[in-house]
Design goal:
By secondary structure, this protein is of the alpha/beta class. The strands form five sheets. Strands 4-3-9-10 form a four-stranded parallel β-sheet, sandwiched between helices. A four-stranded antiparallel β-sheet has the order 5-6-7-8. Helix 6 crosses helix 7. The radius of gyration is 26 Å and the shape is elongated. The relative contact order is 0.11.
Length: 463
């Protein structure tokens, strides 16, 4: 298995620290608001990675943290006139609801910063004792960036270049403008927690260093996150953790690609910012998940009406192949499994894996006509491989009829038109029957006649 390592900027053969076991940490959400499409990308990408590693036989411990101490949380709770706990608990419940609808499995552990303050304080004390951090006169504690020899290695950047070309906080209490905060002294009236340096709260970067090493050990296999976290967050995590422990922090760094909306960066200022729940009000969750899965996890994704329509058409091809077949385990051609595995072993290449599923669906369609006795085993194989991507687990008829919110007509009205068409055919008024069929087809409702009667499916209209 080959995985692209952001640290080395190349694909590497994946060798777990402990044979047969994988320890993985992914930076999770700061729970002050509803999750957006960028969060969905990271959720789904590492859900697929976890599913595949487990299908490959690895015992995976997947940890995704929750940041529940943060300046944004404090401000939002104050704006809402609610407690920090009430805000974060509400947003965590919403996050779980969103990821559940997208078919994302829960991580094995979801540590919260508020639950690990002792470990955070202990790591800061270690960094001070080793000379990597210092307490300033204002009650803040800072990390000495230049004291850590490897700073910048994840992003292939030199600290001097960062100072010359990057915006850094100007603070008279810092020894160097590049130094970053480990502990923030509380301002009057702010929520705070006790520490040896006075009341305050931890910096964001130290929270993840403490939580990850607490849950997975001083060195673990995989650390993941979104594309915007490589600098400074993950760079700072490396500096803190390796300075504190004297050991390599993470063997493989992985970062998901960005989500763009109509080819533009998603931004509230541009008016193209969408939460997961806003998107799911109008689109089947599996359609959204397919859009996120069909591209390689490192590639950017474009979210647009036409891309969602393409995603729905693709899923319809799979569900049409599965329609009318009762999956049953049996002997199948192992080439599909081998090709799927080869694709996923190549840095979790879901785009290639999906193309294998299309070939399998075509074979299933052929077999349904030419050798129907072999179709149930092929259908079972398609569902089994689809499940590794978190796809194709609905009943075909349910998906093909579409979610009620997506129907161009109420279902009762569709059924009434089908009944009227049947009466027209019975009266041999074929022109009227054809007119009803064409009317429904124009709305994307395709009728399927059989000996048992007429059924229908909702198909995305062609561009």
């Amino acid at each position: 298995m080959q995985i692209y390592n952001t640290l080395t900027r190349r694909k590497e053969t994946f060798t777990p620290i402990e044979p047969g076991k994988v320890r993985m940490y992914v930076c999770g959400m700061t729970v002050y608001d509803y999750c957006h499409l960028g969060h969905a990308r990271v959720m789904v990408a590492f859900d697929v990675i976890t599913r595949y590693l487990r299908a490959r036989g690895y015992d995976v411990t997947y940890v995704r943290n929750i940041t529940d101490i943060d300046d944004k949380i404090l401000r939002r709770a104050d704006e809402n006139d609610e407690t920090i706990e009430a805000l974060t608990d509400r947003m965590i419940d919403a996050m779980h609801e969103d990821e559940g609808r997208l078919g994302v499995l829960r991580p094995d552990a979801e540590p919260r910063a508020t639950q690990h303050l002792d470990e955070i304080v202990a790591m800061i004390e270690t960094l001070i004792d080793k000379g990597y951090a210092y307490a300033a006169a204002n009650g803040d504690v800072y990390y000495r960036v230049r004291r850590f020899e490897g700073y910048g290695k994840l992003n292939n950047r030199d600290p001097d270049d960062m100072r010359a070309g990057a915006r850094v906080d100007v603070d008279e209490h810092k020894e160097d403008p590049l130094d970053f905060v480990l502990w923030k002294a509380a301002k009057p009236g702010e929520a705070n927690w006790l520490s040896p340096w006075g009341p305050g709260r931890p910096g964001w970067h130290i929270e993840c260093s403490a939580m990850s090493t607490c849950c997975l050990g001083e060195t673990f296999d995989i650390h993941g996150g979104g594309p915007d976290l490589t600098f400074p967050h993950h760079e700072n995590e490396i500096a803190q953790s390796e300075a504190a422990t004297g050991k390599p922090y993470v063997n493989t760094w992985m970062h998901a690609g960005a989500v763009r909306v109509n080819q533009e960066k998603m931004s509230k200022s541009l008016g193209n910012f969408f939460t997961i729940r806003e998107v799911l009000e109008h689109h089947d969750p599996e359609v959204v998940r397919y859009l996120l899965v069909a591209s390689h996890y490192r590639s950017p994704i474009n979210y647009a009406p036409e891309s969602l329509a393409d995603a729905r058409r693709s899923l319809e091809r799979f569900y049409n192949a599965l329609d009318g077949v009762e999956p049953r385990e049996g002997e199948v051609d192992g080439r599909f499994d081998a090709r799927f595995t080869a694709a996923m072993d190549d840095d979790f290449n879901t785009a290639e894996a999906v193309s294998v599923l299309f070939d399998l669906a075509r074979e299933l369609n052929r077999t349904k006509k030419e050798a129907p006795g072999e179709a149930p085993a092929l259908a079972a194989e398609l569902k089994r491989l689809g499940a590794i991507l978190g796809l194709l687990q609905q009943a075909p008829e349910a998906f093909l009829k579409g979610a009620a919110g997506e129907l161009p007509l109420p279902e009762a009205e569709i059924e009434a038109k089908i009944a009227a068409r049947a009466e027209a055919k019975k009266a041999r008024d074929f022109a009227a029957a054809d007119a009803i069929r064409d009317e429904l087809a124009a709305l994307g409702i395709v009728l399927k006649d059989s000996r048992e009667g007429t059924s229908w499916v909702l198909e995305a209209p062609e561009d």
